[in-house]
Every structure is written in C-alpha cells, then in structure tokens.
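Lecture 7 notes: from sequence to structure.
We start with the chain below.
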Amino acid sequence: MSVWRDTPTLIGRHVTLRPLDRADRAAILAAFAHGLEHVFATIVPDEASIDGWYDRLEQEQAAGRALPFTVLDADGQVAGVTRFMRMAEPHRRLEIGGTVYAPRVQRTGLNTEAKRLLLSHAFDTLGCQCVQLRTNWFNRASRTAIERLGARLDGVLRGHMITPGGAPRDTVVYSILAHEWPGVRQNLDHQLEKHA
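Predicted structure tokens for the same chain:
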C-alpha cells in the first residue's frame, strides 16, 4: 500500500498519533465532554454527531484524501484527534487540520510535538512540497499557534464556508513549503526543548 494511503503511528515524548479507530469513540467523547461546549471555530464531535463524523472520515480516507489520527497524551490517554486532509498526492500537498484537543492538553508541548511529527511525516516520508494549515479568522489562539510553528500566511478566503450555525466563515490559510521545512523543524525542536 502507498504511504499516501496508510495511516502511520507516530510516536514522540509528549504524544502518540495512531490511526483513528471506531473503538476510540467513547474515549473521544469523554475527552471532549467538558470545556468544548461553546467552541465555534471547529467541529467537535458529540454523541449526536460522532457516528456521522466517523462515516465522513472513513469515506475521505477510502478516497485517498485523508489520514485521520487519534491523539494520545504521554500517559496513553486519548487527548484529541487530528488528520491529514485535502490530500493531493499528484501535487505532493496536503493540509493538517480537523484538530481538536481536550482542554487538559491545550497549550502544552503535546500540540507542538504533534505538529512536529505530522510535518516530519509529510515532508520526509511523503515528500510533500507544500503543507497547509487553515483556521477560522476569529480563532486568534489557533492563528497564533500556527504562526508560532513558522507557517507563512497565504491569505484569507472570505465567505469560504458555512458554519454548522449557518453563518459564513472566513478561513485563514497558511503554508509551509519543502524548502522552508528545515528552518521550521529547527524552530519546533527549539520549542520542544522548553517542554523537556
């Protein structure tokens, strides 16, 4: 099977990313049960939506457009989800997104290391020439985190999508190119030293 079709297990000191599995359903719901009720900037699966959410991810993966991960913390507890998405193997590009973390691990070394592992796999294993990251215009915390990674602003897609509440959303698009990856990797490694 192609490395573009096979979800790997990526292991770091603070985080493990392993292929998403429906057996994670209860643990994902528990991780998101408290503190994410009013999140407006991303889709947080809940009891009513998680089965449809799994269905969509499995369809995207079967079509070669996504590789979804369950995120485990250093203790092996489910702490969130993330994925490679909008994958385009012929163009050697993808997006890292669909990321949701339990409040208990937000703003810790977990996210930095997760992005380091994902970017390393994208550039060093898949041979990507471009990795994108997108976020809601109003999600200042996410924009700051993406910029801290070393991604560069591509632009804003105004009225890009309709949110579950029915409002139009402006999407901010960032990217990292292959020739920028060595500098971004060095930056991430420096940030991770602070969490050692």
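Points to note: Residues 109-125 form the longest helix (17 residues). The radius of gyration is 16 Å.
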